[in-house]
Specification:
Chains A, B: It catalyses: thiamine phosphate + ATP = thiamine diphosphate + ADP. Chains A, B: InterPro entries: PurM-like_C_dom, PurM-like_C_sf, PurM-like_N, PurM-like_N_sf, ThiL-like. Chains A, B: Mg(2+) 1 binds at residues 44-45, 120. The structure is a homodimer of 319-residue chains. The first copy, chain A, has 2 domains: 4-137, 60s Ribosomal Protein L30, Chain: A, CATH 3.30.1330.10; 144-308, Phosphoribosyl-aminoimidazole Synthetase, Chain A, domain 2 (Alpha-Beta Complex). In chain A, a hairpin with a 2-residue loop joins strand 12 and strand 13. The radius of gyration of chain A is 20 Å and the shape is globular. With 319 residues, chain A is of the alpha+beta class. The relative contact order of chain A is 0.16. In chain A, the strands form 3 sheets. A 7-stranded mixed β-sheet of chain A has the order 8-10-7-11-9-12-13. Chain A has a 4-stranded mixed β-sheet with strand order 3-6-4-5. Chain A has helices at 4-12, 59-77, 95-111, 161-169, 177-188, 194-200, 214-225, 249-258, 274-283; strands at 21-23, 30-32, 38-48, 80-90, 115-123, 127-137, 152-156, 204-209, 228-232, 265-269, 288-295, 300-304, 307-308. Strand 2 of chain A pairs antiparallel with strand 3 (38-48) of chain B, so a sheet runs across the interface.
Chain lengths: 319, 319
């Protein structure tokens, strides 16, 4: 069985070179000479076994998704990913797990040209905390507090896959095993939106990523921007796989509205900039869907097939 | 019971202002405009219940120490602490715990003028991961790879309290309850060495903090600097409280040599700079003790009362 330092060397070293990195793994701190003309965007997220992922999750998927959820926060600011740290708590030094976990992690890190500059490993119930860092030109970050009345609300990609996977994983819904495998993979190997997000800054000042559920996350924008919105739930885009799922139209929409863990971009755009937005999206081959509008009136009005949607709903919170 | 967002607002908000912080808590990322003439030092450490601290640990102590172990890494590079993020996993939203934990945390953060710029809370077994950030003038960081043959090895403060507390906590040693309380407090409310460490850079190029045990940590310096050392174990400085502890001289020394969790600075200084070092230490009222010398020969020779110390030893590792 590998010791702590051997484990780090075997599975996590050699990925710590990059622009501005003066000192990588192996000292008390990493040292960075940050970009002079950029702001540094910093985010951190934790995944705990049994809470954020099912016990026995495929370690490749887990490595990928642990980084993806953090990269998604960088994307939502329009930041270019640069580096990350990893704090890994493991019940034991399982080499097979570590090999697959690190393969999944670096498959995404390498694609995003992110260096792993430090971290720690310790013993305990499986838990992964990553802090991720990116650069964004000064004053150009997309922020939650910059939505304006009249802005059109858009979402990238499709919604509901995160919610569908969790529902099926808890056996609240029965999916054929081959269908479940596809849902599982799609819910874990989520494409990152970093490249599209950086282009999006040309037409967008306000964005976030859908992690707690579309409606709950939209509420964060409304509160921070001191505005309201009309949201057309029936416009929420669903993956074509939903055609094979035995749920009513409303149930599908509810997964897209409240399910969370989709890691798509929710953003607002001034109507004058829509044609440019559409060109950018086409150029990056990213599907975008208008789903509502920001209003001066501070309420959030949810519509389903042009009628008010009134069911109680609450964004995901841990406590 | 407080929800996740209310919990963050109640106990962890309002500490996110500081020099260079463009955007604090509440968005997907924090945004920083880093110091132009400095390097950014980054470190991250995790404390897990039952591994890094005993179940039922005083939450004030825990808040303090979670940050201290990270600040200690900044100190060992000679960096000025600037800000941190907190990832907190809790079994439930216990307000009494959170009040005391955050009091302990901010008692140290405020003293060090550190802003809390972001983080997350989630449900699960109690675990705390902090990433801490500091600034150090370009090229001036103290590093593990810069020890030179002939350098004198020093340690700040006293050693062994971390090891003594763990031994007593596991009932491998019986301490009277009032004595145990003092040991407990001293092992948790460890003074930070950040101010002394920044002054130390005038005379020192190589330092780290004693977290895994003096001998194990010295080995990190030797490996990275490609040198050896002679270490006089009987010179390791002990707190006066050890006079009241029923252990042999050798047993006490072994706690100081292999116990870990002391978070003092272990550093090497060119003999020509000793008189300046002594002035700096006196000026900062920090006790320093010469405990050995760096050698060209790459072995680590441990001496106890001028004789080789031969007992098998291994630095603390999690696996």
């Amino acid at each position: 069985m590998l010791g702590e330092f051997a484990l780090i060397k075997e599975f996590f070293s050699g990925h710590d070179k990059g622009r501005g990195i003066t000192l990588g793994i192996g000292d008390d701190c990493a040292l960075l000479a940050p970009d002079r003309n950029s702001e540094l965007a910093i985010t951190t997220d934790t995944l705990n076994e049994g809470i954020h992922f099912f016990k026995g999750e495929d370690p490749f998927y887990l490595g990928y998704k642990s980084l993806l959820v953090n990269i998604s926060d960088l994307a939502s600011m329009g930041a270019r990913p640069a580096f990350f740290t990893l704090s890994l708590t493991l019940p034991d030094s399982d080499e097979l797990f570590l090999r697959e976990f690190s393969r999944g992690l670096f498959s995404l890190a390498d694609k995003e040209k992110m260096a792993l500059i430090g971290g720690n490993t310790s013993k305990g119930p499986l838990s992964i905390t990553i802090s991720a860092y990116g650069y964004v030109a000064k004053g150009c970050a997309m922020r939650r507090d910059l939505a304006k009345p009249g802005d059109i609300i858009y979402v990238s990609g499709n919604l509901g896959m995160g919610g569908l996977f969790v529902k099926a994983g808890y056996h609240e819904l029965n999916l054929a095993s081959d269908l479940f495998s596809i849902v599982h993979k799609k819910a874990q190997l989520i494409p990152s939106r970093t490249v599209f997000a950086r282009a999006l800054r040309r037409v967008c000042r306000c964005a976030l990523d859908v992690s707690d559920g579309t409606v709950g996350d939209l509420r964060h924008i409304l509160e921070r921007s001191n505005v309201g919105a009309v949201l057309n739930l029936d416009k929420l885009p669903l993956d074509e796989i939903f055609d094979q799922v035995n749920l009513t139209a409303l149930e599908k929409v509810e997964l897209a509205a409240f399910g969370g863990c989709d890691y798509e971009l929710l953003f607002t755009v001034n109507p004058k900039k829509i044609s440019l937005l559409e060109k950018i999206a086409a150029c990056h081959r990213v599907k975008i869907t208008p789903i509502g509008v920001i209003t001066k009136d501070k309420n959030l009005n949810l519509l389903f097939e042009n009628k008010p949607y009134v069911k109680a709903n609450r964004p995901f919170e841990h406590f």
